[in-house]
Design goal:
This protein is an alpha/beta fold. Helix content is 36%, strand content 30%. GO terms for molecular function: FAD binding; monooxygenase activity; oxidoreductase activity, acting on paired donors, with incorporation or reduction of molecular oxygen.
Length: 405
């Protein structure tokens, strides 16, 4: 039986868990990262067709921890977000001022994973434990530990639950969750299209759910590409997934009304159920939750990963400050500060997202008219528009240092 003691024990090596390990290492904080999967599986070509919108604040974080150079060539800049009610007249355009740069960048998840693993590989402060299961978790008076499937014991001062929505660490610690199921499913696929997207992300709202087109860089053969995230009712999902490629493409074309010209499918369709979940508390004795383990939200505003990256920035800042004051990594008051900082911000973002989902999901002609009147109001109200854009760029609220420019 072997033990190896570090400061953080990060359970879950996905995008948020790995970013935490790297951000902590930049501040001289060592960690163990444990994941059931192997990096080669997580970065395999077909593993995850999803793409993520990285907000301005999250991009600052990547730049501050030294990932920007590796990522820059692969990111597609989001120059504008067009919001429309079923392609009817009266769309809103969110376009930043020239001096503000972009609204964010779109990256394939695989690209983000590769950059994170590549950076972590040469970082002595990060010990990676992949393809393994946690058999036992222990949080004691002076530290924490886990026993892995091969009887290895890993020890640290603070445990961090970062395994995503179904977090076993959170479940075992008995956190209470508020959650509801939207009874909707997101279908994800890449599209190649005839006309360039010009950096525009489209959010088209239909009564059966939002239809989002997210700009990606042209592929190696110069074809214009976007990622489609299409929300459908759970009862209709199996039918849409079973359609032939040709019939599926026809359904997409019908909803896009020719904005990008001729279309072709790129890659395979994948899908996942949508729900809302949020823990009122984010910390317990020597334990902190980050990312989807703490809050899982609707992908409508593309803010799920960005919310997790704000958790990372806040936790690292609180830990660094604690270090300066000579506090233990698991100090209860320090963790309470992290919880207070993040709980309100994440609930605000999630509440706004949830309201948007419900507002645009109300069927009928009258509700469509009301929505379009509201959208026209936002289009003409610079203060409201500015608020929405700051939210999209992740530049609102009390920002952790690592997420500032």
């Amino acid at each position: 039986m072997m033990t190896d003691k570090r400061e953080l024990l990060i359970l879950g090596g996905g995008l948020v868990g790995m970013t935490l390990a790297l951000a902590a290492a930049k501040k001289g904080i060592s960690s163990h990262v444990v994941d059931r999967a192997d990096p080669s599986e997580l970065t395999a070509e077909g593993f995850d067709g999803r793409a993520s919108a990285i907000s301005t604040a999250s991009w600052n974080l990547f730049r501050n921890i030294g990932l920007a150079d590796a990522l820059e060539p692969h990111g597609c800049r989001i120059e504008n977000i067009a919001v429309t009610d079923g392609m009817k007249p009266g769309r809103i355009d969110f376009q930043p001022e020239p001096h503000e740069g972009t609204l964010g960048r779109m990256f394939p998840n695989r690209t983000l994973r590769l950059a994170l693993f590549e950076a972590a590989k040469d970082q002595p402060l990060i010990a990676w434990h992949g393809s393994t299961n946690v058999m036992e978790r222990h949080r004691g008076e002076h530290g924490v530990s886990v026993t892995l499937a091969d009887d290895t014991v890993l020890e640290a001062k603070l445990m961090v639950g970062a395994e995503g929505r179904g977090s076993p660490t959170r479940e075992e610690a008995g956190f209470t969750m508020a959650h509801w199921d939207y009874r909707h499913r997101a279908i994800i696929i890449g599209l190649c299209h005839e006309r360039p997207h010009e950096g525009v992300a489209w959010e088209i709202f239909y009564p059966d759910g939002p239809f989002a087109l997210l700009p990606l860089l042209d592929d190696g053969e110069g074809r214009h590409r976007s990622a489609l995230v299409w929300t459908v009712a759970e009862k209709d999902a199996a039918g849409f997934l079973a359609l032939s490629d040709r019939a599926f493409l026809y359904e997409i074309e019908k909803r896009m009304e020719g904005i990008f010209g001729a279309l072709a499918l790129a890659g395979h369709r994948s899908s996942y159920p949508l729900g809302f979940q949020h823990t009122a508390k984010l910390v317990k004795h020597r334990l902190a939750l980050i990312g989807d383990a703490a809050h899982g939200m609707h992908p409508i505003a593309g803010q799920g990963l960005n919310l997790g990256l704000r958790d990372v920035g806040a936790l690292v800042e609180v830990l660094t400050e604690g270090q300066r004051l000579g506090l233990d990594r698991g100090d209860a008051q320090m963790l309470a500060r992290y919880e207070k900082w993040r709980a309100l911000d994440s609930l605000m973002v999630m509440g706004a997202t949830d309201s948007l989902t419900r507002l645009f999901g109300v069927p009928g002609k009258l509700s469509s008219v009301i929505r379009r009147v509201g959208m026209a109001g936002i289009q003409r109200a610079p203060i409201l528009k500015r608020w929405f854009m700051d939210e999209a760029r992740g530049m609102s609220g009390q920002l952790p240092e690592l997420l500032k420019g």
